[in-house]
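User: Can you write out an input/output pair for a complex, sequences first and structure second?

Assistant: Here is one pair. Inputs:
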Amino acid sequence: MTPFSSSPFHTTRWTRVCAAKADSEDGRRALADLCDAYYEPVVAFLRCELRDTDAAREMSHAFFVEMLGGGTIDHAEQQRGRFRSYLLGAVKHFLFRQRLHASRLKRGGGVEAASLDDEEAREVADAAQPAADHVFDLQWARTLLDRALDAQQAECAAKGKAALHDATKPWLTGECEHGDQLALAAELGMNLNTLKSEISRMKKRYRELVREEVSGTLNAGDSIEEEMTALFAALRRA
Amino acid sequence: MSDPVSPDSPATCPKCGAPLADSDAKGLCHACLMAEVMQPSGPKARWEPPTATDLAALLPQYEIDCLLGRGGMGAVYKGRQKSLDRPVAVKILSAEMEDADPAFIERFKNEARAMAKLAHPGIVAVYDSGETANGLLFIVMEYIEGTDVARMIAQSGRLHSEYAMAITAHVCDALAYAHERGIIHRDIKPANIMVGQDGAVKVADFGLAKMSQSAEAGLTRSGTVMGTLHYMAPEALSLGNAVDQRADIYAVGVMLYQMLTGKLPQGLFELPSMQIKGLDPRYDGIIAKALREDRDIRYQQAVEMRHDLDAILTQPVVRADAEKAPAQANPPPRPAHRQLYRPPPARVIVRKGRKSTPLLWLAFIAAFGVAAWLYWKRTADVTPAGEVSSKPLVTRSDSSPQPLLPASVTKNRPFVNSLGMKFVPVPGTQVLFCIHETRRMDYAAYAASEAGVERSWENQIQDGVPVGHEDDHPVVAVSWNEARAFCSWLSKKEGRAYRLPTDREWSFAVGIGQMEEGIKAPESSSPSVALLNVFPWNGSYPPPPTVGNFNDTAHKQRFPKAATIEGYTDGFPTTAPVMSFKPNTHGLFDLSGNVWEWCEELYQPSHYKPAVPSRVLRGGSWENASAGRLLSACRDHREPEGHFNIYGFRVVLEVSGKDTVITPPDAVTSDKLRPEQQKADAVWRSRWSKPGRLRLHTEGVTSPVTISAVEAYDDIVSVAGVAPGTKAGVLARWIALRANGELVANRVNFSQGQRYVGIVMGYNGAPDVLIREGGLPEVRGQLLRTAPVLQVRAFRMAALLELPETSQDAEVYALQNLDGTWSLMGKPVDKKLLLLPDISSDRTIQNITLSELGITVVRSDGTCRLYGRKEVALSPAVFSSVREARFGKQIWYALGTNGILTYLKVSPAGEPDYANPSIYTDVAEFFGGHMGNYWRMTSGLWAAHTPDLPMMNKLNALNPDFFFLALGANGDLLFWIEPK
């Protein structure tokens, strides 16, 4: 799971990165924040490609070091697109260069036992899809939703409502059989109607948080709905 | 508060039923979270619909009884149209939507008009629409007393398959109607499918999804512009407006899955037949096809889906653990207030054997009404094997021959008549052939019911050995006249047209019909030179064991003076029971041997005039041994009145008028078979038929992988996806070819009666090519061409041709003809988009590989040329075969030479660039995996195209001669085939 960012929660902004001047501290910091938040999708992608969790983590680390080491912001083109696409493209290029380099050394020789035990690598999708890309998007969506949830949890904790949040968060997935609301209300020491309004408020707030998080990864003028739709499509194909 | 992965967090999402991945650490289903954010459910606080009284005041022509419900778009009321005194439903659109856009109202009116044009029993009718005085948009519709599918599912969890089937079929019909008129629903979901109290199924809210968009607002209004997220096709999620009717079909697939299982199909979802005990596995294929991400390979029209659903209906599969149909014990809980279906009609046929058939009939009748039942009844006349057809429920006059439905009679679904005789089509003819010689018992039925039938056939004895003495032996010692009399009797009895076959028809039956084209048969008892070595068993003389009943050692024991076939034993001194030996390709038995069979014609060769007029006989008998007499083309002849115990007959059935029988697809009809063709025939046979049986198992995989039980397959290709051990199953796409010619995908047999002999994997998303019996290539159910192939490659060259990735127009096929030359097929070839020399007569081509760069041709002199947008010579290296590998968007050619395997990277400009060569032993076979490409080397080791992917040590032990390794998409070993 993404470690909760040490800084107080604020939505990092891709727009800040894009607007930043070359080599500026501000831009670099903004990029670092974004990368920190969306570290997991990169790992997932590399794990898919390399079929080895440890190798994936190592390479992710190397990737971010390179990316944040400076210079990346300069020679990215003006039109970077949204952060999600940008990051995926960057990691793919990185991977390719790594492989090219490695291939010069290892061709035709060294034999390694194949790992058959990698649990995560086992979840695969239809061959017709470029699956590593899909894994990236899927993990991106999950990370995003989890971040918003974490943020909401922090907010509620700050208001002394941690227990409420924890108990009611199943209803964030919609109206369904999540348990007896009446009993829950009693447990939490409130009447049913109050509970219902709290749930409604939670849902509304969560929605806002998700939208904020999404917009943080987009350029000005990109459609939030479009990005959410794309992420939903990835989640549905999970 | 609680531990992220707490022990009591549910294993599946309560909303959509999808399994929760480990990474859903908070115990929440991410897909549902996102869906809820995008389309919040629950009451909208903002808008208050008018009360019934208020609305009635605004709509003076209607009485408004009550508010029925509220949805994302507005509210629905029950009312009554005063002028016509009929119940109506009045839907008003929530006010906030209209404010935004003045053009919206105009669009609304247009859509309402379009909806009003839809007049179909499966579509809720629109009566009126307009705007109230205070600006509310309303639609007046047919009122359906009943429920909707969403409520049914909520109440019962899931629906019985027969209800689900009936509902889906109705929806397909309604959609077909609407699509034909250019109207796409866009929001098919259970809540929009009404089921009336009388059992009628109607689709509601047509066009509403489109209607409620407002251009400026874009995608901002949740629940209005989009259909309900879970039912939206992938292209609808990404393209928005540019969807076509196939998006509706996708939604129907989701709905069908949901009705059958109670869950939404999420990601790698479990096939319904694996979840519901006894469910017909054909639903899996239908749902899978409706839910294809790529809409080009989805059902293209609603009628196609309907057609496949019908197949389940008309050919029930009896399962030992089958669900009981609703009319029997344990009916599914019904919606409390209504009964959905009519009780079945009073008279029903009870059939022997298949218990579930009449019950399905009941549900079918009840669901579809009597009119539809009559249609289905006709199809059901062609009863499956083993049953005797009982008298039809609807009496028909016996005078006119009853037409047969063409598509329903094939080799695997024969027509069975009142005596239990089975008939199958024979390509090249317009008749159905009885699969066996007329039996003693068939003839006995005739003799019993007609007076004065001659009785020689009853007690035939040859040197003390009885002939034709058992019921299931062919009847013997009937004259040509008597054989015809039998046919007349049978024709009159059934109102059909039975007769003897013509000599020409018999030639087709035995497989030499085309070879005799141009020959005036029956020319001579000695066939033409070309036919001198053609025998009915598709081999040479002497016949291999158990081919037919001839003059054998058993015969010789009883008749020591007889000449026999050396070393041949069939076990019968005289006649044998019909169908004791193998049938031929058309499913006909004993064409060779047992008894000679009378044909229609007079025997009148040009060079020889028989003393008395005689009729033709074909096929040889239990008494024949010599090669000349057993040739396919051999004719015997005899006076028509004679009774001989080596002569019998076979019956054919004419099909009337325009109900011509469709030639079964496994026959080659357009190529004239010449003798040299037969040799080529043998070549494709050896290419495609692989001897031996291969086994699947999971040895070597450390974590358990659930695969189906060990079965025998001949081939396996195209593996993607895997069923992890603990989860019950995923939509894994694999196809396997069984030794008996059936094709199985995900354990569902989808051969549909067609026998296959090979699979060729399509590269790069191009469809797999299935090879039918006869070496005929089939793609998407259609023959690529009607001539057999030695090899075929299938590829999608989208990037090269700058076409969309999934465009079928980008498909190119390279087919190797029997004579070794190659042909290329596909639109890009037709349109000359590729630079190609004329290769049609080039016999030096060893191999053709298609790729994004173009067409690589390897010739026997070792040279290799690439034809694409421009011609590139890849010499001076010498190559023996070419394979293509992909890594991301780079294209690497792995070129096998006699000893050198070279990675060839081709730059964007098309110039080859030789990377460091390495030494491998050979490139022997090649797979496209989805994570990468692998090939096997003759040393038995596997290598991947990207060198840092490790070689599979565990495969060292494999005998390289016996393999078809199925590799998991991530390269893990799923199963392999061990030597027989």
